[in-house]
Amino acid sequence: MTDRAKPLPQLADVKAYVPGEAPKSCGGPSYKLASNENPLGASPKAKAVYAEMASKLEIYPDGTAKDLKAAIARKHGLDVSRLVVGAGSDEIFLMLARAYLGPGDESISTEHAFAIYAIIAQQQGAKAVEVPEKNFTADVDAILKAVTPRTKIVWLANPNNPTGTYLPYDEVKRLHAGLPSQVLLVLDGAYAEFVRKNDYASGIELASQSDNVVMTRTFSKLYGLAGLRVGWGYAPAHVVDAIERVRMPFNVNLPAQAVAMAALEDEAFVEASLAHNDSELERLVREVRALGLEVIDGVGNFCVVKFPEMKGKPAAEALAYLKDRGVTVRGLGGYRMPNHLRISVGTVAGNNAALKLLTEFLDG
User: Fold this and answer.
1) Residues 126 and 141 occupy one common structural domain
2) Model confidence pLDDT, tens digit, residues 127-153
3) Which has fewest Cβ within 10 Å: 91, 187, 312, 352?
4) Based on the domain organization, do 177 and 306 belong to the same domain?
5) What angle do CA 220, 252, 277 make, to 5 degrees?
6) 292 torsion bin: left (phi>0), alpha (psi -120 to 50), beta (else)
7) Buried b vs exposed e over 193-203: b needs ≥16 C-beta within 10 Å?
8) Separation between Cα atoms, residue 285 and residue 37, nearest integer Å
9) Which one, of 30, 27, 22, 35, lies nearest residue 350 by Cα?
10) Among the listed ranges 23-27, 257-261, 276-280, 330-334, which one has the minimum average pLDDT value?
11) Do residues 254 and 119 share a domain?
12) Would you say 65 and 257 are in contact if contact means Cβ atoms under 8 Å apart?
């Protein structure tokens, strides 16, 4: 065999991220409840701006995303100089890994955390340390115990995906207080807007006051812009500088920047999206529990359901049953939760379809 180009050795153990599946065509309505997308779509104002951008596709975007950063700063009362933007918040994670992780380093996440944290650490040749959770919730003491002199980043999705659980702000502050000053705490707030708990905070205050905290948010969930890939982060000046040194030019495209600004301004759509999620998540959880299934107490725009370990009723068979009938939900075997499925809050019709199929599956 002739010699051929070889990838970096650390890539041998990297497992590619697997996204939620699109629904199967079954001759009737189909519903994707597998990716935590906004069931109401995107803001009408955002859609109108997207249509306008069709006449400008030959133009490079502003590489600094100056106007988008200014709009985010106004919306949240932030220092614009401490903002970074990316093609989704996962690109910000990637830039942080490129800037702070290398061979021999370690990053920490919890055992059922968003898979991308471990993936990007491994891509950099760093060790991805995963620590146990308690009741599917991040355990501050376990995280702190896992810190070593090689630890460079601690990733914390709050609320967590895929479990939907969250840490109260006091626990987040306790975690931060226990970390060495040279360890970055990255707070992933992709689902922050959906949380209605008095003891929760997204981490903007902590990121504002600390020299080693980065908070990230996304336009993919509440704002319904998953297809455009826009995320943002708030970080200390020295972290912003490091990110800018590894950021690719024009990383957030022209339509994405313009549409995200329009989405920020459409408060009526945001309120409608939140109201729909509040009512439909409560109904979905209530009716799933009425079927005799366990549901993890969580927040966000999805619920996680546990299936019994009995013949004919496991999660994998429920997943296939729904998929074959036009409804896709998320299997969690890759997250070491083989008895669980994650169900995104969909439209009323989509939720009704999922509930009907679950009832049929359990009664069959």
Assistant:
1) yes
2) 999 999 999 999 999 999 999 999 999
3) 312
4) no
5) 10
6) left
7) bbbeeeebbbb
8) 18
9) 30
10) 23-27
11) yes
12) yes
Instruction: Supply the CATH number for residue 275's domain.
Output: 3.90.1150.10
pLDDT of residue 28: 83
CATH number at residue 137: 3.40.640.10
Token representation of residue 78: 């932030």
Is omega for the bond preceding 159 within 30 degrees of 0, making it cis?
yes
Which one, of 334, 319, 343, 341, lies nearest residue 115 by Cα? Answer: 334
Band of residue 1 on the pLDDT scale cut at 50, 70, 90? low
Domain coverage including residue 294: 14-42+268-363
Same domain, 110 and 136: yes
Q: What are phi and psi of 70, to 5 degrees?
A: -65, -40
* Residue 168 and residue 181 in one domain: yes
Q: Name residue, tokens 């803001």.
A: 43
Tell me what pLDDT residue 21 has. 84
CA distance 280 to 228: 26
Domain membership of residue 9 (yes or no) is: no
Which pLDDT tens digit goes with each residue over 271-311?
A: 999 999 999 999 999 999 999 999 999 999 999 999 987 66
Q: What domain count does the chain have?
A: 2
Same domain, 258 and 283: no
Return the number of other C-beta atoms located less than 10 Å from residue 251's C-beta.
18
The 10s digit of each residue's pLDDT in 99-129 is 999 999 999 999 999 999 999 999 999 999 9
In a domain, 2, yes or no: no
- The token duo for 122 is 């491994």
Angle (CA) 336 319 301, round 5° = 75
In this prediction the pTM is 0.95
